[in-house]
Design goal:
The complex is a heterodimer. Chain A is α/β, with parallel strands linked by helices. Chain A contains 15 helices and 9 strands. In chain A, helix 8 runs parallel beside helix 9. By secondary structure, chain B is of the alpha+beta class. Classes of the chains: A alpha/beta, B alpha+beta. At the A-B interface, helix 4, strand 1 and helix 8 of A face helix 2 of B. Chain A: It holds the Pfam family PrmC_N. Chain A: This is peptide chain release factor N(5)-glutamine methyltransferase.
């Protein structure tokens, strides 16, 4: 019954500004007609059906997952699976229904789900998300695991009673996912995070406060490409340097899906012609910020590890390429390097 | 006899090209313990539980991310993890959370429970606990029933006394 009322209720959205950085008014005009929210009541289950079908019709990627996540979020849950039978079959209030329609309409414009619901999970943390700050990817959760493995060993090996300060530096913190995750897992860790985007710095600060980690995290608005010396002035040697730097090849930027192309900060993605511009800068800087035997951990493009190894061997004497690790899909994804004392040898 | 838990459902978008690979080593407590039945602390549980330790070499993990390059070039919210235990053929699917990492860890926890049942049959932790709970309930019922009986007999005794003209208390 409610399906028929939709076809009768189609209306054009017209110009509309969505989100704090929304600039898709003209796009909205092109891809208008959104079904009016039903006059009669609708249950979450029915709404899921409607929107999954509509997303699919309109070519929105992950139609089912998108609807699931948005509806779950609206009902106070993280996943559809955790919604009880009652939640799903209860008729939604007028207000709730309108909120749901508002959120799903944003998704129609290909706004990433994470921006639509303004949050996402990274490991065991829930972080605020806001365009155009880069959305953490699942691969990066594994980067954190790699760093934790080593840092936990370091803590274990520390002399009893020694209050060895454990610090890490993150270049390009985005929403703060990596640093905050490390801080959350290692109570004795202190972290310094940098980003060249003021939006990212602001968001990281907000997330740090929400998680009660602000006392152990210093955040700076610095561009390592333009001002690497600023980093050296900031901190004394750190045990670990971590980064998920922009690593896409410039030529690949154009073929990105709309979710990324329209909403995420391109400077968080574009690594230059070979995707290595920022990586080279970070690795050049690394020996100057790392303590002896400190390590650098990078997430990179699958084509990079062998290129990075060669480049480091030829250009950064004080760094030893330790190993390449693969991500869950089997792609070479993470590079681990270690500072060596060139006087003492490898 | 091992049971095959066929749990790959339509929730995981298996029409996409999926990558099966030997499980990359993950650094949880599990991986560092010696092989064999060992007492470990299952996260969030108060009891010490004797679940089998997982050997990552015997696991195959599937994470559906499509055929794209992954990493920064992709933004997908699907995070379903499918874990297969090769020797027994047991498959566990987990999409309980929005974090792939957490889903992987939970999948392993569930796998250990299933392996426990598969290996130990009647003696498995899950079944033992179930039996204990059933026994406790039966005990409770029995006691409640006995109490009621006692009360009933007491009442009858009172009535009988009053009939015989005795002063009731």
């Amino acid at each position: 019954m409610w399906r028929r009322s939709f076809s009768a209720g189609y209306r054009c959205l017209g110009r509309r500004r969505i989100g704090p950085k929304g600039t898709w008014a003209s796009r909205a005009a092109r891809a208008c007609s959104v079904p009016a929210s039903p006059a009669g009541g609708i249950s979450a289950l029915q709404a899921l059906d409607v929107w999954e079908e509509l997303f699919e019709e309109r070519g929105v990627s992950e139609p089912k997952h998108s609807a699931d996540h948005i509806v779950a979020h609206l009902l106070g849950a993280k996943t559809r699976e955790s919604l009880g039978r009652r939640n799903l079959t209860e008729i939604l209030s007028r207000e709730r229904t309108e909120q749901l329609w508002e959120l799903c309409t944003r998704r129609l414009s290909r706004m990433p789900v994470q921006y639509v619901i303004e949050q996402w999970d990274f490991r065991d943390l829930t972080l605020k998300m806001r365009p155009p700050v880069f959305i953490p990817r699942p691969e990066t959760e594994e980067l954190v695991e790699l760093v934790l493995m080593d840092l936990e060993k370091t803590c274990g090996q520390a002399e009893e009673g020694a209050d060895a300060p454990l610090t890490c530096l993150e270049v390009g913190c985005g929403s703060g996912a990596i640093s905050l995750s490390l801080l959350s897992s290692l109570p004795q860790l202190k972290a310094i995070a940098l980003d060249r985007s003021q939006d990212a710095v602001d968001l990281t600060r907000e997330n740090a406060s929400s998680l009660g980690l602000q006392d152990r995290l210093q955040i700076y608005h610095i561009d390592v490409m333009k001002d690497p010396e600023a980093v050296l002035r900031l901190c004394s040697p750190v045990s670990a340097l971590v980064s998920n730097p922009p690593y896409l090849f410039s030529e690949d930027m154009l073929s990105l899906e709309p979710e990324i192309l329209r909403f995420e900060d391109p400077s968080a993605l574009d690594g230059g012609q070979d995707g290595l511009d920022v990586i080279r800068q970070i690795l050049t800087m690394a020996p100057k910020v790392l303590s002896d035997h400190g390590r650098a951990y990078l997430e990179v493009d699958p084509r990079h590890p062998r290129l990075i190894r060669r480049w480091v061997e030829a250009n950064v004497e004080e760094l030893r390429y330790v190993e390449t690790r693969h991500d869950i899909t089997g792609r070479p994804r993470f590079c681990i390097l270690q500072k060596r004392d060139i006087r003492k040898g490898p | 006899m091992s049971r095959l838990y066929a749990v790959i459902g339509s929730v995981c978008d298996v029409s996409r090209r999926a990558v099966w690979r030997g499980s990359p080593s993950i650094p949880p407590l599990l991986a560092l313990l010696p092989a064999g039945l060992t007492r470990v602390f299952a996260a969030g549980k108060k009891d010490l539980i004797d679940f089998p330790v997982l050997n990552e070499d015997e696991l195959e993990e599937q994470f559906v991310r499509g055929s794209g390059p992954g990493g920064q070039a992709t933004n997908k919210t699907s995070n379903c993890v499918v874990l297969k235990h090769i020797p027994t053929g047991i498959v566990v699917k987990c999409h309980q959370t929005r974090s792939v990492d957490i889903n992987r860890k939970r999948a392993r926890g569930i796998m250990r429970e299933k392996l426990d049942v598969a290996y130990k049959g009647e003696l498995s932790e899950v079944l033992v606990k179930k039996k204990e709970s059933v026994l406790r309930k039966q005990e409770k019922k029995k006691k409640a029933h006995e109490n009621l009986e006692r009360k009933r007999l007491f009442k009858e005794a009172l009535v009988a006394d009053s009939k015989h003209g005795n002063d009731s208390v």
